[in-house]
Specification:
By secondary structure, this protein is α+β, with helices and mostly antiparallel strands. Helices cover about 15% and strands about 35% of the residues. The protein is built from three helices and twelve strands, in the order ββαβββαββββαβββ.
Length: about 190
């Protein structure tokens, strides 16, 4: 599955989505690819979430008017067995973890004492003038990869105990791009 942002009929960062789509198929031994831009025809007015479901064929394409979810707090949730290498419609494990968020807006998944991702986004943390992203995310998102390629992020292992050393947190995904949670201190975000 791919989620692609469309603004007034223009698909954003399609090259990164095409690359990930091809990479996923290759991991399953499939080496015949479609050019995604030939299949995607988003609405010409507004911001839409394009959802592309595929296997060796394009299975389904849908467009949903996008309304950004406000996330101001994250609950640390530990799961050392979770695997989510490919963006997928199968999110049962993530949904089960999300149910543990209590009064927080979302979860921040921790695997083997390393901070990974939220239920919907990769993350970046700010320290000493640099934005860092976990070296071992659950999913290498297209926005995360683009920002790494542009030199705007650096990878590092981020342990739970290291969170106190960071001052800001940003969420990264195709729909929100790079979205800094607007709280004064990172400690106010983690609940």
């Amino acid at each position: 599955m791919e989620t692609i942002k469309s603004v007034d009929g223009r698909l954003l960062h399609l090259g990164y989505h095409q690359k990930r789509y091809e990479s996923v198929l290759k991991s399953f031994g499939i080496y015949t690819f479609h050019n995604l831009c030939e299949y995607l025809k988003p609405p010409s007015d507004g911001i839409y979430k394009c959802r592309l479901i595929y296997n060796e064929n394009i299975v389904d394409i849908s467009y949903t008017l996008y309304i950004k979810k406000q996330i101001k707090s994250l609950k640390l949730i530990y799961d050392n067995k979770i695997e989510y290498f490919h963006k997928s419609t199968s999110r049962e494990v993530i949904n089960e973890l999300f149910e543990k968020k209590q009064n927080c807006d979302d979860i921040l998944i921790v695997k083997n004492n390393l901070v990974c991702d939220t239920s919907i986004a990769n993350i970046a943390l700010f320290k000493d003038g640099i934005w860092f992203t976990p070296s071992k995310p659950l999913l290498n998102g297209t926005t995360r990869q683009r920002l790494l390629d542009e030199g705007r992020l650096q990878e590092t292992n981020i342990k739970v105990d290291d969170l106190k050393d960071y001052t800001k947190l940003a969420l990264l995904n195709a729909m929100i791009d790079f979205d800094i949670i607007q709280k004064y201190n990172l400690k106010d975000i983690i609940c």
